[in-house]
Every structure is written in structure tokens, then in C-alpha cells.
Write a structure and sequence with these properties.
The protein has helices at about 20-30, 40-55, 105-115; strands spanning about 5-15, 65-70, 75-85, 115-120, 125-135. With about 140 residues, it is an alpha+beta fold. The chain has one domain (about 10-135): Histidine kinase-like ATPase, C-terminal domain (Heat Shock Protein 90), CATH 3.30.565. Strand 2 and strand 3 (about 75-85) form a beta hairpin. The radius of gyration is 15 Å and the shape is globular.
């Protein structure tokens, strides 16, 4: 029997926080949820790392706050980030850059490992939602 749906939340303040704080948050969740398989954990860790890294890198001269929520249900993991970074002109279209590009693979990678990837700007926040259907353990 799986535990009932649960929400877990954290806030990353940059500076001084880095993507490490986001990883620490997930380590705490995984400690409480041994029912989440390794493949699902890796997918959510990758998605969160890419999203938090993007907001920190794209706002180098201003502090940003990134609220992180992970909702765990019996059938899916839903990762949501809401950040105070600069608003995006339009919803990005994930695509793989040229082979020699040093940046730009994050959203394309998330799209490969997630079942859904959504972006919207709401309440002065960039809101990203990544949904991954849970794999059999």
C-alpha cells in the first residue's frame, strides 16, 4: 500500500543558495518516501537541477527566490517551481542546441524525461510544472 498524496515544499534564495539546496530538499523527501523508485528520483532531480540552475544563471545581477513544491501521488510526481527571476518574453520551446553549444540543453532534457512540461507567468512569478508518471518500483 502506497502512502497517500503528499506535498513537500522548500524555498531557494539566490544568493546565497545554490542548486545544492534544491538537491538537499529532495534528499529529505526521498528519506521520507522510500516508495519512489530510482528512475523517478533521478528524473525529478534532473528537472529540478535544470530549472533552478536556469533561474540562477539567467539572473546573475539580482537576488531571486525560487519556491519549490513536489507533489507525490500514487500515480505521478509533480514538480512545480515559481521564481522571481526576470519574466520570459514567451514560453520557451524546448529544443536541443547544436552539438558544440555549451548551454541550452536543460529544457530539452526535461522534456525527454517528463510526461508534461508547462510554463506560465503568474502573480509576478515564472511558474514551471513538470509531471512524471511514476514507474513501477
Amino acid at each position: 500500500m502506497q502512502p497517500s498524496p503528499s506535498n513537500y515544499s522548500a524555498v531557494v534564495h539566490s544568493p546565497p543558495d545554490t542548486v545544492n539546496e534544491a538537491h538537499d530538499f529532495l534528499e529529505t523527501v526521498w528519506g521520507q518516501r522510500p516508495d519512489i523508485g530510482a528512475g523517478d528520483r533521478m528524473a525529478i532531480e534532473t528537472a529540478l537541477s535544470e530549472l533552478v540552475t536556469n533561474v540562477i544563471q539567467n539572473n546573475p545581477h539580482r537576488p531571486v527566490l525560487c519556491e519549490v513544491t513536489l507533489t507525490v501521488t500514487p500515480s505521478a510526481l509533480v514538480l512545480r517551481t515559481a521564481d522571481t527571476g526576470e519574466p520570459l518574453a514567451e514560453a520557451p520551446r524546448p529544443s536541443m542546441p547544436d552539438a558544440d553549444a555549451e548551454h541550452g540543453r536543460g529544457l530539452a532534457l526535461i522534456e525527454l524525461i517528463a510526461d508534461e512540461l508547462d510554463y506560465r507567468y503568474a502573480e509576478a512569478r515564472n511558474v514551471w510544472q513538470v509531471t512524471r508518471r511514476r514507474q513501477a518500483a
